[in-house]
Design a protein that fits this description.
It is a single chain. By secondary structure, this protein is of the alpha/beta class. The protein has helices at 30-41, 75-88, 111-139, 152-155, 162-182, 200-203, 208-216, 226-236; strands at residues 21-25, 45-50, 64-68, 93-96, 143-148, 187-194, 248-251. It has a 7-stranded parallel sheet, sandwiched between helices. Helix 3 links the parallel strand 4 (93-96) and strand 5. Helix 1 (30-41) crosses helix 8 (226-236), helix 2 (75-88) runs parallel beside helix 3 (111-139) and helix 3 runs parallel beside helix 5 (162-182). The N and C termini lie far apart (36 Å). Residues 6-12 have low confidence and may be disordered.
């Protein structure tokens, strides 16, 4: 079996990813785009996924495989995995960064709001992990699965993000359970929990006052850049994190401490 501490065809250090084949969802912008860019720089072959090819246009002529899928639909998981396996020759890494946040006051949340968050954020995590794990099991050389959660899994969310928080709490629970299931196959499963990250999703749904209020609560006194979250993801999918699974990594600038 191949070792994650000796990446074929590229950097053979514990942080190099030469020869690895990765799927990164939500890769059209924000954290997903930053993760995909860093994995490419570290030598991985990457399949970038977003809702439409239009969202993937910023990738230009970059050496990536582009797949357009709406991950809120269950069949999309198998289609993404089939495309990545066909184009890359296999799958070693899944980073599921795609997600949705629709801020709605508690008394105005309806079934459509609730289902949108659970379909897109929670259900897609399970079925993408399941489909990728099937490929990794068949390959027999282990793998890495990383899901992006949110500090809202712990706080319950603020400013109308209750349904979002509930879905991200479910992601953390899934990661812990799936990690136990897949550990005998040497497939690690971990969750990254960002705090406030400077993305369109955050800025587009908060007033300037709301954004300033939330930022002021961060001990680091600023928003995270998506590249800072990507650095943590790159560590988790590298050979340096061989023995870490079922972990929930808090990357919040001190906003949360646990």
């Amino acid at each position: 079996m191949a070792s994650w501490r000796s990446e074929p065809g590229g950097d053979c250090g514990t942080h190099g990813l030469g020869g690895r084949r990765a799927i990164v969802t939500g890769a059209g912008s924000g954290i997903g785009a930053a993760v995909a860019q860093l994995l490419v720089e570290r030598g991985a072959a990457v399949c970038v996924v977003d809702r439409s090819l239009r969202h993937l246009e910023p990738w230009g002529n970059a050496p990536v495989v582009r797949v357009a899928e709406d991950l809120s639909a269950v069949p999309s998981a198998s289609r993404v995995v089939e495309a990545a396996e066909r184009e890359l020759g296999g799958i070693d890494i899944l980073v599921h960064a795609a997600g949705v946040l629709k801020r709605t006051p508690f008394f105005e949340v309806d079934v459509d709001d609730w289902e949108l968050h659970l379909r897109t954020n929670l259900r897609s995590t399970f079925f993408l992990a399941q489909e990728c794990a099937r490929v990794m099991r068949r390959q027999g050389s282990g793998g890495r699965i990383v899901a992006l959660a949110s500090d809202a899994w712990w706080t319950g969310g603020y400013d109308g993000s209750l349904a979002y928080a509930a879905s991200k709490g479910g992601v953390v629970t899934l990661v812990r359970g799936i990690a136990r299931e897949l550990a005998p196959l040497r497939i690690t499963v971990n969750a990254i929990v960002p705090g406030l990250v400077d993305t369109e999703m955050l800025r587009g749904q908060l007033s300037p006052d709301g954004l300033a209020r939330q930022t002021a609560a961060v001990p680091w006194q600023r928003l995270a850049d998506p590249s800072e979250i990507a650095q943590v993801v790159a560590f988790v999918v590298s050979g340096a994190a061989e023995y870490m699974t079922g972990a929930v990594l808090n990357v919040s600038g001190g906003l949360l401490t646990y």
